[in-house]
Structures are given as structure tokens and as C-alpha cells.
Amino acid sequence: MFSVLSRFTLLCFKVLTLFFIGFIIWGQWMEGLYPGAGGVANWAHIGGALGGAWFLYVYKGKL
Amino acid sequence: MNKTQLPWVMGLLVTICFVLHFTLPVQTRFALLTTPAELIFAPSLRALGGAITAGFLHVDFRHLFSNCLMLTLLGFALEKKMGHGKTAMLLLLSGLGALTVHVLSNVYSPIPFLGASGYVFGIIAVYAALL
Fold first, then answer.
1. What is the pTM of this model?
2. Can you tell me the ipTM of this complex?
3. Distance, CA of B44 to CA of B47 (rounded, Å)
4. DSSP code at position B113
5. Which among B59, B102, B107, B119 is the top mutation candidate for probing chain A, defined by the most A β-carbons within 10 Å of its own β-carbon?
6. A41-51 residue pLDDT tens
């Protein structure tokens, strides 16, 4: 039962990740159509994720 | 780490976001904000302070709620797994990453920094990697 729930949660997060990638691409497209719209914030979102990657690099093998 | 320990770093961040949102009037919140152009072409302590403070401020309740929901759902679990120090470091690095990329990609933008989304996306990235 737990295994099924874990796999379901993992699937949900994969879908959510895809959703966020889509959200970022959508934001950039909107930025092209309406300068000053969502795309501005989405670059900050990408920056936040890069900060997370930076953290993973710093603490590689220590988490 | 003991899993019953309180994730106070993330709890403090969420609390600060809520307190600032409901105590500062909208005009004061927007007066505190900084644009990328201001930070690059007219750097000052006020501009830097505004950029840092913006990580705790939100446009409206929907913005606040969606960010704090993700911070609570993912952040609390992550802090219980990683500990307080590493969580604080993750917040620092993701905030710094968000600020840097935002400034570099929107040098002339008149739109100021606003929201804790940078922290949220840093947490999502680490959470996804540790799954």
C-alpha cells in the first residue's frame, strides 16, 4: 500500500515538475506578447531553481 | 535528525510573510520595492534593502497563499530531512539565485522584485532531486 502511495506521489511530482516547466515556457511566451507580464517573474523562478541546484552542488553527498 | 523537531526556519519565513502582508499597508509595501535598474544604475543601501525585503512581500492574498502553501508543504518536510542550517543555506542560495537572474534578465525593467517565489522554486528543485 505504501509503495503504491509512494509511486503515486512521485508521479504527481513529475507531473507538477512538467507543469512548472510549461509554466515557465508559457511565461516567456506571454512576455513576448505583452512585455512586462509574467515572464519577468519567471526568470526569477528559474533563478530560484538554479539556486537550489547550487545548494545541491555545495552539499553534494552530504544530504 | 529527530523527525519531531519543529521546522522553525521555514515556519519563521512563512510567519514573516504573513505578518508583513497583514500589517503593512499596500502603499508602504510598494514603496519598499526596488527595480533591477535602480539596483544596477543607482545602487544604495535602500535599493539593496528593498530587494531583500521584497522576498517577504506579496502583491495580494492569492500570491501570498500560493507561495506559503508550497513553502509549508515542501519546505517543512525538507527541513525535517535536512536540518535547520542546511535549510537556511538553501533559502539564502535560492534567494540569491533568484535575485541575480532577475536583475540580469530584466536590467531595464520597471517592474520591481516581489514575492517569495525564488525560495519556492529552490525548494522544489531540491525536493525533486532528493525524491
1. 0.79
2. 0.86
3. 5
4. P
5. B102
6. 677 888 888 88
